[in-house]
Amino acid sequence: MKRMAWTDVLYWLALPLVLLFALFPFVYAIASSFKRGNALFSSDFWPQTWSAANYVAVFAEQPFGQNLLNSVLVAGGVVLLSLSVSLLAAYALGRVTFRGRGLLMMTILGVSMFPQVAILSGLFELITWLGLYDSLWALVLSDLIFTLPFTVWVLVTFMRELPKELEEAALMDGAGVLTVIFRIFLPLLWPAVAATSLLAFIAAWNEFLFALTFTLSGEQRTVPVAIALISGASSYELPWGNIMAASVIVTVPLIVLVLIFQRHIVSGLTAGAVKG
């Protein structure tokens, strides 16, 4: 019988602890979302009586359906614009040699290192000057500041690994640059595109500070702000049941997306690590 290595033993000992640490908050939110009244403060982990009243109240007491749609539109718009710009930028930075390319890459990376609050006032003036305040376009524009550098850096890494002979053959056959990028390179970059798209979507979906600052009306808010502003019947009441229900609703789409694209995520994040 083959003896297990000590690393395997540590792995199987650590796996339950990691799963418990990662999954417990979400499982607790699900259990709490089906509790009502004083049951929320009982010592029972699972509700004695399951009730969907919190989920009904979330949609009945505020425009949560519109908030969900706003988050989908903002996150989807950020992903589409990020990828459109990043693919072109990645080709220029990864396949074309020009003076100052390294400095430009470091500048792009440096932009993503600034905290949100450091650029908040200047960005607020820009949003107001463009007439985009209290609109979804304000959130799309502001989220691009942090998703675009990430997508550019990841795609540049993969763009450099593509065979140069493939590009030269396409150009010799009369293909233009856009044809090379979107018809030849894009299918090969699909794992990287899927991984960066999902990570950019999650970042835009969870963004809070810009969404809180640049939106005012309830119909223009995204779900993180809508959850933060859920209030009870009085200033002394915090509706934990509604908050837990809203948190579950917001988290489920992300889990579904990760499960659907998990194969592409893993291959996209590891394909460029080892050269064949």
From TrEMBL:
Ranges where the ABC transmembrane type-1 domain occurs: 68-261
Topology in the lipid bilayer: Multi-pass membrane protein
Top-rank lineage group of the source organism: Bacteria
Subcellular location: Cell membrane
Major location category of this protein: membrane
Keywords of the record: Cell membrane, Membrane, Transmembrane, Transmembrane helix, Transport
Transmembrane segment boundaries: 68-91, 103-124, 136-159, 180-205, 243-261
InterPro entries: BP-dep_ABC_trans_perm, MetI-like, MetI-like_sf
UniProt xrefs under SUPFAM superfamilies: MetI-like
Xref: Gene3D superfamilies: MetI-like
Sequence similarity: Belongs to the binding-protein-dependent transport system permease family.
Name recorded for this polypeptide: Carbohydrate ABC transporter permease
